[in-house]
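FAQ: What does a ligand-bound record look like?

Like this one, built around calcium ion:
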Amino acid sequence: MSRRDGPLAGCRLATSIFAAITALGLFGCGGGGGGGGSTFISLINIYTVGGTIAGLSGTVVLQNNNGNDLAVSANGAFTFTTHLTGGSPYSVTVLTQPAGPSQTCTVTNGSGTIGSTNVTNVGVTCATSSFTIGGTVSGLTGTGLVLQNNGGNNLAIAGNGGFAFSTPLLSGANYAVKVLTQPTGPSQDCAVTGSSGTVGAGNVTNVVVACATAVPDPLFTDQWHLQNTGQSGGTVGQDVNVLPVWNATPSIKGAGVRIAVVDDGLEIAHEDLSPNVVAGQSFNYVNLTTNPTHVFASSGHGTAVGGVAAARDLNGLGGAGAAPRADVVGYNLLESNVSANEADAMTRNGVAVAVSNNSWGVSDNGRWAASAATWRNAIDSGLGTGRNGLGTIYTWAAGNGGSVPDNSNYDGQANYRGVLAICAVGDDGVKASYSERGANLWVCAPSEGRGNHAITTTDRTGAAGFNSGTAPDYANANYTNTFNGTSSSAPLAAGVIALVLEANPLLTWRDLRLILAQSARKNDPGNAEWTMNGGGFNINHNYGFGVIDANAAVNLARTWVNVGPQIVFAGATATVNLAIPDDNTTGVSNTINVAGSGIGRIEFVEITFNGTHTYVGDLDITLTAPSGIVSRLSEEHVCLGGCLGVPSNTWRFGSARHLGEAANGSWTLTVKDLAPVDTGTFTSWQLTFYGRLN
Ligand SMILES: [Ca+2]
Ligand SMILES: [Ca+2]
Ligand SMILES: [Ca+2]
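The answer part, i.e. the structure of the complex:
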């Protein structure tokens, strides 16, 4: 035998060398201690009780003779510490069954009388317990309701009251209940709360299915961004194509996916938001409570944003959000926008926040405005730890300075690799004039555009907010038809992303981005800037990869296989140290030869330009990839109030346009100064690639 008995090995040895021990008179074992000659007599006849345990997942506590508790956490041999004399009875029982997962352990050969050897044949076999998943249905008047658990085990529900799925689940397994088929005759809308969780140590009985007669949302027909039937004179189909997703079997409306609205507050008691608000999970940076309702009379933007993402559907009120059953919380960062709060808002309850929508940013004046390191670190943290390590998705308003013209790449938040810069198109699918161009843009979503048809969404209740009840806005002041900007396109994208994440909750933030890029719709197809990059993606400085399409994205997500690990390759800094010729169309070019990056498919490129200039609006900066694809990083422009210089003589541009291309090869940065008077220097530059092997 090769068992490790620890201190007991000495006891077993002692039995065979009794004489020596007797002579020394100083050996003792647990239970056999004490002085006197009788102790020595018992010493030679003491034995251990033990056996073997199998099937154990957690910790079981065994007892022998109603005592000598022994906690066991590993399969294999076990031995009680107390020794018994020959002839003693022993009786092994389970004192505490394992939890997490819940198991039941049974004992065989557990009792008897000790003979003249150690007892080693007690058997303990543990098996994980199974429990049923169920709950209660109420309000059901129609027929045909079918529930589903974990994508199967369909359960037809005939009436109100308790239900349980036929297939039990092992303790520790996850369950997720949803409505597969809604009732008809009358048409009903059944919503599930407490729909998902982990099976514990008993049957799950707290899944609540509440059915109510489905009442159409009266303003839905105005929401052309969700279903564009040309109702506002727009182009049929220029919307985010959510209806096929909502109407899929089972329906996907964002259930169980949390969207954080980081804004100037969120009116969580609003009649068309409250059903989706997660109680106690919002935050107010002004009064430090969990009620993020706008503190200031001038606020209200966030409630409009929240409705675009996740206003409740089929409740006879207002319209609907793109993800009308998503969970929503609000963080009123903009009412107390200091650096610490900015970082906090990016990561608060990050494990639970699937999508963080940010319809805010620096002034759209055309200047280069850097982001704070604390903010970037917070984003990085959210990517690493959000959604239990899958990464929080950050949607970011690309900017409304398109007519300045500002460029989204002059915004150090919108051009950061960790966010999705969302541009805006009108109901004709064409770029909204205010929507900023940029090599960093990912996808666009509809908002008010050329046809001046704005977005219908929730508004602060009553006179507050955008609508006080005055025409041409709605008489019902709880809603508005005036919302617009990339402030509206970003949460529309956030809602669509919630749908995608419900369809496939295991997507990492990188996979989600790839799905959006690959499934985006090539809008405004006549636009001359469309081109296909070396990775096979349609790209356009006005539109990124195109307009987000919920149905295409969800369908792609259903069978998506997550990509391999991220590779980051930071190239060396190339020194240039040349004056940029003033008012000159040739400029200064410099080439970096990238080798050994290990990146076969780029996911994002960061371009750090180091230099000086007295008016950055003079600068035209382009990056030319080995593929020949060009990223226009800076375009000659005039800033509102005048352009300033290069902040701290360094600027990080971002480009999405090389998605799927290889990193190795020659990359050329060309810096031109296209306007007279102001001048500057191209000092150096550097490339950082984010991507994967293949
Ligand atoms: Ca509604
Ligand atoms: Ca109002
Ligand atoms: Ca100049």
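Follow-up question: can I read anything off the structure? Yes, for example: The CA atoms of residues 272 and 312 lie 5 Å apart.
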